[in-house]
Amino acid sequence: FLCKIYLKYRSMVLTSFIHIFYNLIMFLGFSISSEYNKYVLILDVETYNDIKYAVPYDISGIIIDNSTGDIIYMFCLLDIDIFTNSSYQNNIYFKDKLPCYYADIRDKRYKDVDFQFLSKRRLAETLNDIIIKYNISVIVGYNISFDYKSINRLYDNINKDIKNLKKNYKYYNIDYKTIDNTIVNKFKGTNCFDLMQCCLLLLINNKLLRLQYYLYTIKHQLFTDSGKFLSFTEDTIYKCFVDARHTEQHQGFKDCLDENKLLDRFVKQEINRDYFNNISFYLNEIVSRGNYTENGVLSIKRALKELKDNDLIDKDYTIETADFIYK
Question: I need a labelling partner for 100 at 20 to 30 A (CA). Which of 14, 124, 177, 205 fits?
Fold first, then answer.
């Protein structure tokens, strides 16, 4: 899929001719025939709070053949400490989902998923191995910057602990060379393709899709906690454009499967339409805060105005005082 749309790699700092040349190649698109872009990784994480930061205990992914869209490999890497130590579990966002992993493994519901319970170090090393084996340069996901940051934080925490332990060994005159070396972070060099940003661009650039989204979210009262903006979660977009019966599972590998369907059944189909030929989709871009303003595309105020202007709801309809009425 990524071969069919133009992408541009954007780096914060370009310090060498190699970077400049690489940026030029990426600007021309991912249509270059090479092993470098053969596979992409659809990625999702589930996290727990480590002091004040989110750190993953479930890193799941689907390796997709870039030219055919076929699934090559599915994995679910799980932090064994989280699943075996109850003291960690109070900091998990969706701790009620932990028993579901055991049930899925026991009942063999997902035979193609490679489940692995690993220490934090082995989890990071295994992800490195996957990145290297499939030569992954692009990761895809909904709000992928969250996943990217949390995984890099895992590597940073591991290496920080190793460095601190070596420092203590030196202080107490113990042979620190017996301690494992720090881990090279192979994941950090990947580029992010955000499905959330992609879906937003589709709505911004197509009035019919935008009105469909406005109708669905207003009808079902799918708003952010502030009450000023429309929900734009993966679950909301999936329900609106793929399957209204959908419920986000909050298990990495299941959410990866959903994101692959969202990519296949909505994003791909819409991008291939004639009226989207002139839109550029970029790597390493996230949803702008400008969309969460009074006149932003996700504003309830703007949604109501557009629906009324297009005669899709009654002119006197308000969120507070009326049931939803189709015009």
Answer: 124
